[in-house]
Sequence to fold (155 residues):
Amino acid sequence: MKVCCFTGHRIIKITPDLIQRLKDTIEDMIRKGVTDFYNGGACGWDLLCAETIIDLKTKHSSIKLYMLLPCPPKEQIIGWNKAQIARYNNILQIADSVTIISKHYTKDCMKIRNKKLVEFSDCCICYCINPRSGTGQTIRFAKEKGIEIINLFTR
Fold:
């Protein structure tokens, strides 16, 4: 295993416990040989995961953060608040690479991004409450591929 992706909902309750479980899970993946982390850049879970990878790079210099965006940043951030946009822009500046799937937002660009995230990955760390969502779709792609899925949502 070398590559891991993230998928999760845009609206999540971020608690100290969730942050610690995410960090512990990522560090476990690093111990198992994962060095490359793919992130779709969505508000919420994706931003939290990207910031966690950036924080862990000080301790694990070999890990890489690859941002795989569905559309150009100026279109992806429509409807976001200033703090979310600032976090997003900071992540894009620090990421090891930024790839944009579609030249413009389309009805399929998120689905294509989700498929690509899984296509590159050997495991998926997720936060899924609702399986009838883009996150659920990504998890179904991961199940079809047969990769390890770690859902950090707890009731």
The chain has six helices and six strands.
